[in-house]
Design goal:
The complex is a heterodimer of chains A (232) and B (1092). Helices cover 34% and strands 28% of the residues of chain A. With 232 residues, chain A is α/β, with parallel strands linked by helices. In chain A, the strands form two sheets. Chain A has a six-stranded mixed sheet, with helices on both faces. A four-stranded antiparallel sheet of chain A has the order 2-1-4-5, with helices on one face. By secondary structure, chain B is of the alpha+beta class. In chain B, strands 20, 21, 22, 23, 24, 25, 26, 27, 28 and 29 form a ten-stranded mixed sheet that branches. Chain B has a six-stranded mixed beta barrel with strand order 3-4-8-5-7-6. In chain B, helix 14 packs parallel to helix 27. In chain B, 52% of the residues are buried. The mean pLDDT of chain B is 82. The chains are: A alpha/beta (232), B alpha+beta (1092). At the A-B interface, helix 2 and helix 3 of A face helix 21, helix 28 and helix 32 of B.
Chain lengths: 232, 1092
């Protein structure tokens, strides 16, 4: 694997069992290489397998065949605990639903992935505060999620995804539940963070605006990926 | 498509969740219905027992120690044209003829004829009539003696004395006879083997003999003291027939004619009953009468000359005070004048015995001036003036005298014997009637005869009878069938009791059903949202889900009802084994009424529906969007109030203050501590609520940890979390505090203020004991030393009746009465409730309170008064005295948990006034050294076996009563523990529900790198915290409620069972939490990340 590539998918297939021994193939012999610090969008019609692909990349799911290598490690050969460590240390997630813990403050929510790795020290707290500053929520650190708007909550989720300085930031329809203005603001933020933090960004989206801001756009259709030309 | 299709498909689709709802609701139905059916079974058994003991008897007339003509029964049978039987019923003791160790006391000896068996529930198999010396016994007695038909037994039966054994000159030497009998049959309960007029729990020990034969053996030929009337006659009809048929002979009264003209009315009891005397006084205007009171004098003397053992008659008009003599004068006959060598004007001294308590004889004397000397054959003197003193009147010679007093034969000279042979009992001296009454009147009467000369014997008989009613001579019918029905119907409602005992279990099951249903509804929030979104009204959605719930409830009830029958069988099996103490070891048969099943079904359905409707109401209040997105309602944005301003903190402070105050102000120690414990529980729960509320709002500041987040998670839904804590805490509190406060009979049992009254021994005899066991004279007849083993024995009178204690499930209608002398019990036992009297009496002195005519003050044990009689201080019961007069027994005080449970106590004075001829003692309380109790018990039981003495340690007796209470506690604890188990299952469900609500969050945790074990740890920490808080709150409050146990010396908390309960709770709770967490976390996570 080239040192410049953070992610390599080699002939990855994903099939699901269906009734009467039938199988549905969502991804078929799919290969993909993503260089470090690249911002990439995956688009495609509903049901094309975008989220499935993202889950495979994010070590949330395993392929039926093929390999997924992240930062040189073959995810398909790792045990659950090792996968958990990969998710914790290498990957950041932003979901359509923010899934913040209501009992924790904004700052604590940002620190949650760090807690998965053990005790949270002052350095991480400072980083969390810094990230909150980057998403313009520095003054809301001690508030609970119930006091925030939908856009603010998604920004907290973004800060949470970045707390462990992941090599790869995955976002599944991050603007799906947001209004236009809030979406634009979040898109701006994602692009900015990608540049500032040199984090590889893969976004699954239906949003042309968001896809248009990425370095590279891949379309997933009938189980296969093809690259679309971008405006940039 | 119809709505019903939607309902049916919904039911089928969510069948797995619904199975949980059905299961929990079925448990609630089973427990609720089962508890009610236990009540049915107990009530049914009591009614069945009542039918067995009375058969077809509807009315009964008992006359105790007075015997009426047996032919009175025949007269009533003809008049009423119903079944009537007359019998003799007496107490006795018996033993196996070959083995004196196999013996039984408290035997009902019943002399019967063929008519008796006609009233049996089922006619006995074989020959109904018993021949001479043949006996039939009931099964319990056969079991006790280990006998069968063909064996022989010895029966000692109380021989009724026409003269009370407490009356002057009565004898005790013939108080009982022993018969050797051939056992010819064992009579089953269905064939009248259980015959008894008393509504007691324990089956009687019955011995049936031929009435005619036993009457002959008892010198009571042609007499009976019990009449039973079969169905078809009312009390009024029977009373009318009795009023027409009775005769003076039924009152033991006879008439004699002297000198062809003077008619005398006298009583076989020596003293004429006051009612008869009153009747004669009422006739005085048409037949002026003279009263006679003849007494036996030990000695008549003038100066230094004496004449032993003579009768002296007091004579005079019945009405007015004027007579032939002044009250300080005497007339003597010539024989006495010659014997004493005296003359008119000399002083005659009369020495005589009066009979005190326990036949204690006291010699007294009185002086009279001799007014006149009359010839020996004067019309004023005749042998008939002497009543038929037992042991005297039939004797041919003075040397054959055997009265109830000691006769010193050496004092009797030849001239005395000649006088007896020539003049029999002719009095040697006469004094005025007022003077005689002053010396010799007693509770039995103040006349031995009444004489008049105007009416013929028949006219006088009719006239006196006309003045009386049967009730005045103690004859009257009681509606025993109605009493038996009342005793069974008003008995302790076991249905209610079991329902109360099972309430925590029912509550836990209902709550569980509600929780499972809520879980089901929670799973379907999207479905509900969709229905609302596409145009269903909330009412219509509610109707669909309620209809589903109703169908579930119906299925649950349909399953629960048979479950209830099984639950009842299980409880009955418990009542016949581990819980037999609760029903005094009586087998309870299964009974179930359709009405009870219907009540159980309807109540269970209603409860289940209520739970369902409440859950649904809460869910349907939510916004459609929230329902549609299946997002749980977020807790409202809250800001932490200052601690002092939170409602729950204020409640906790108030409750804590209440707990302290209750300890300081409430009188009864146990109640105070229990109240304090309960208030403390509220305080702790309120404190938990405060903590949960604040935990949910906690801000960063402390070091962040998984456990910290978990604990704060518990505060996310403070209401739900508090519910879990409250269920666990309440269950632990109840089970532990109730268990800890179980009364131990050994606590301070030696103290005078304890339930034993400081007595070491309690004994009861089947036959009365007439002498004082503390004296040589009283103890010797039993081969005992005076004050055996140094024990001082207090003897009390007893009137048999229903056992009004917790060993009798029937509601006692006419409880046993014990006569006590208040001073004998001074300072003993603990009074818990007393009635204020005008004279400010207290303690046992209340028994001497004057509450008005025919109102007798009584003191009873708390359990007797409150539970067995259903009364309270100030209330009264009606009794009929020996003369047929109704009087009230008013409860003036209650004593705590005592050996007197089962009886009411009245003063000895009142006792003897109401039950005049009742003689001797049957209850014995012994003061003995602790080490001597067992030996004393054994010695009394052996030495006094002929009177059926059954002595037991006072502590053991108390322990016997406490067995019932302890068993109730054990039942409560067992059922409470089952409730706790359901409570812990509920805890598991809360875990499931919380996890389901947080699937997205948990999936994110997983996605960001938390391992399964870390997530599980967090969930376990959160819910185990709730469990531990619940257990801690329960234990702390329970330990406070158990204050009296901790405080009192010699008592301690049952640490073993307490720890076991707490550990079992914790382990079980953790198990459910772990299981629920593991199963729920198995779910697919990826979907949760996209949408919940």
């Amino acid at each position: 694997m080239n040192d410049q590539n953070i992610l390599e998918l080699n002939r990855v297939s994903k099939t699901y069992s269906q009734a009467r021994d039938a199988e549905a193939t969502v991804l078929s012999e799919l290969s993909l290489i993503v260089p470090a610090a690249q911002a990439m969008a995956i688009v495609g019609p509903s049901g094309s397998g975008k989220s499935t692909l993202l889950n495979l990349i994010g070590a949330l799911d395993t392929p039926t065949s093929g390999t997924v290598r992240l930062d040189g490690k073959d995810l398909t050969s790792l045990k659950p605990n090792q996968l958990a460590a990969i998710r914790r240390d290498k990957i950041g997630f932003v979901f359509q639903q923010h899934h913040l813990l209501p009992q924790c403050t904004v700052l604590e929510n940002v620190l949650l992935p760090a807690l998965a790795g053990g005790a949270v020290g002052p350095e991480l707290s400072a980083r969390a505060a810094d990230l909150l500053g980057q998403v313009n929520l520095a003054d809301r650190a001690d508030d609970h999620p119930t006091m925030l708007s939908g856009g603010e909550r998604q920004r907290v989720a973004l800060a949470r995804a970045l707390i462990n300085s992941p090599a790869l930031l995955l976002a599944d329809e991050p603007t799906g539940s947001l209004d236009r203005n809030t979406s634009e603001s979040l898109i701006e933020l994602l692009v900015e963070l990608n540049r500032n933090e040199a984090t590889t960004l893969i976004v699954v989206t239906h949003s042309p605006e968001l896809a248009g801001r990425m370095d590279r756009v891949m379309e997933l259709r009938d189980g296969s990926l093809s690259e679309l030309e971008t405006a940039q | 498509m119809k709505l019903i299709n939607l309902i049916v498909s919904g039911l089928w689709f969510h069948r797995r969740t619904h199975l949980g709802v059905i299961g929990a609701a079925a448990i609630a139905t089973a427990v609720l219905t089962g508890a009610l059916l236990v009540g049915d079974s107990v009530s049914g058994t009591l009614h069945q027992t009542a039918r067995q003991r009375l058969g077809e008897t509807s009315l009964a007339m008992t006359s105790g120690e007075s015997f009426f003509r047996a032919e009175l029964g025949d007269q009533l049978r003809q008049a009423l044209k119903v079944k009537v039987a007359t019998a003799i019923q007496l107490p006795g003791v018996c033993e196996h003829a070959e083995d004196s160790q196999r013996r039984a006391g408290n035997i009902n000896v019943i002399g019967v004829d063929k008519a008796f068996w006609e009233l049996a529930p089922n006619p006995p198999a074989g020959k109904a009539e018993l021949n001479d010396q043949q006996v039939a016994i009931n099964q319990p007695l056969a079991d006790r003696l280990g006998v069968k038909p063909g064996d022989q037994m010895l029966l000692t039966v109380s021989k009724p004395s026409i003269v009370s054994r407490d009356a002057p000159l009565s004898r005790t030497s013939d108080a009982a006879i022993t018969l050797r009998l051939d056992i010819v049959a064992i009579v089953s309960s269905q064939s009248f083997g259980r015959f008894s007029l008393q509504a007691n729990q324990a089956p009687p020990l019955n011995v049936f003999l031929s009435r005619d034969w036993v009457a002959k053996k008892l010198d009571l030929t042609g007499r009976a003291n019990l009449m039973l009337v079969g169905p078809g006659a009312t009390t009024e009809q029977a009373s009318d027939a009795l009023a027409k048929a009775w005769s003076l002979d039924d009152a033991g009264v006879e008439l004699r004619t002297y000198a062809g003209k003077t008619v005398e009315i006298r009583s076989k009891r020596i003293f004429l009953q006051p009612a008869i005397a009153q009747a004669a006084i009422a006739l005085d205007s048409q037949a002026p009468a003279q009263g006679v009171l003849t007494y036996f004098a030990n000695e008549l003397s003038t100066g230094d000359r004496t004449t032993p053992y003579s009768t002296v008659a007091a004579r005079g008009p019945l009405v007015g005070e004027t007579g032939p003599l002044a009250d300080d004068e005497a007339i003597i006959n010539q024989w006495l004048a010659d014997d004493l060598k005296t003359k008119p004007g000399d002083t005659l001294t009369i020495k005589y015995y009066v009979l005190g308590a326990m036949r204690k004889l006291t010699e007294r004397s009185a002086e009279f001036k001799i007014a006149k000397i009359i010839p020996n054959d004067s019309p004023l003197l005749d042998p008939g003036l002497m009543p038929d003193f037992p042991g005297l009147s039939g004797a041919a010679d003075c040397r054959d005298w055997d009265p109830g007093v000691t006769i010193e034969q050496r004092k009797i000279q030849d001239e005395d014997r000649e006088y007896w042979q020539k003049y029999r009992g002719t009095p040697k001296a006469i004094i005025s009637l007022p003077a005689g009454r002053k010396l010799w009147s007693n509770r039995f009467g103040d006349l031995t005869a009444i004489r008049q000369s105007k009416l013929t014997q028949q006219e006088y008989r009719d006239a006196v009878r006309g003045q009386l009613t049967p009730a005045q001579i103690g004859l009257g019918f009681s509606d025993v069938a109605a009493q038996a029905n009342a005793a069974a119907s008003e008995a302790l409602d076991f249905g209610q009791l079991f329902l109360s005992l099972s309430m925590f279990l029912v509550g836990a099951a209902v709550l569980l059903a509600a929780m499972v249903f809520a879980l089901g509804v929670r799973q379907r929030t999207g479905e509900l949202g969709l229905m609302l979104a596409i145009g269903f009204t909330r009412k219509r959605v509610r109707r669909v889900v309620v209809a589903e719930g109703a169908l579930l409830a119906i299925v649950a009830v349909a399953i629960g009802l048979p479950g209830g029958l099984i639950y009842t069988r299980l409880v009955l099996s418990g009542l016949s084994s581990v819980w037999q103490g609760a029903v005094a070891s009586t087998p309870i048969d299964f009974h179930a009424s359709g009405v009870t099943l219907a009540i159980g079904a309807v109540s269970s359905f209603a409860v289940a529906m209520l739970a369902i409707v409440i859950v649904l109401r809460k869910q349907l209040r939510r916004e459609i969007r929230g329902l549609l997105d299946n997002i749980p309602p977020a807790p409202p944005a809250r800001r932490a109030k200052p601690l002092l301003k939170t409602i729950s903190f204020r409640i906790s402070l108030l409750s804590f203050a209440g707990a302290i105050a209750s300890l300081a102000t409430i009188g009864a120690q146990t109640a105070a501590f229990f109240t304090a414990g309960f208030l403390l529980l509220i305080a702790l729960l309120a404190a938990c609520r405060t903590w949960l509320g604040r935990a949910g709002l906690k801000r960063s500041g402390r070091k962040m940890s998984l456990v910290d987040i978990a604990l704060r998670g518990a505060g996310r839904r403070p209401g739900r979390s508090l519910g879990v804590i409250a269920i666990i805490a309440s269950g632990v509190f109840m089970v532990i505090s109730v268990g800890a406060n179980q009364v131990s009979p050994l606590d301070n049992a030696g103290e005078k203020t304890s339930g034993t009254g400081g007595f070491a021994l309690f004994a009861e005899s089947s036959l009365p004991v007439f002498g004082d066991l503390n004296t040589k004279e009283g103890a010797e007849p039993f081969g005992l030393d005076e004050k055996p083993l140094g024990a001082s024995i207090l003897q009390l009178r007893l009137r048999d009746g229903d056992q009004a204690n917790c060993l009798n499930l029937n509601r006692a209608q006419s409880p046993r009465i014990i006569g006590v002398k208040p001073k004998d019990l001074d300072g003993r036992f603990t009074f818990i409730d007393t009635q204020k009297t005008e004279t400010a009496l207290s303690g046992w002195e209340l028994l001497n309170a004057n509450l008005g005519p025919d109102v007798v003050p009584a003191i009873g044990d708390e359990a007797t008064v409150r539970w067995a009689l259903g009364k309270s201080v100030g209330q009264s019961l009606e009794f009929v005295d020996q003369n047929g007069k109704t009087f009230k027994v008013q409860i003036v005080a209650k004593i705590a948990n005592s050996i007197f449970q089962g009886s009411l106590l009245i003063s000895d004075k009142q006792f003897t006034q109401r039950y005049v001829t009742s003689a001797g003692s049957r209850v014995f309380l012994g003061d003995a050294k602790a080490g001597a109790v067992a030996e004393l018990t054994k010695r009394l039981n052996t030495a006094m076996s002929d009177v059926g003495m059954e002595a037991t340690g006072a502590i053991d007796r108390l322990a016997g009563f406490n067995t019932v209470q302890s068993t109730y506690m054990a039942m409560f604890q067992a059922l409470g523990s089952l409730g706790l188990i359901l409570g812990t299952i509920g805890l598991g469900l809360v875990v499931v529900r919380n996890i389901m609500e947080r699937r997205g969050e948990l999936a994110v945790l997983w996605a960001v790198g938390f391992g399964n074990s870390a997530i599980r740890t967090m969930l376990l920490a959160e819910h185990i915290a709730l469990l531990v808080m619940g257990v801690l709150c329960g234990v702390i409050a329970a330990v406070t409620a158990a204050g009296p146990v901790i405080k009192s010396a010699g008592r301690s908390l049952p640490y073993g069972s307490l720890t076991a309960t707490v550990l079992a709770m914790l382990i079980l709770g953790m198990l459910w939490i772990a299981l629920a967490a593991t199963l729920t976390l198995r779910g697919e996570r990826l979907g949760a990340l996209r949408s919940e």
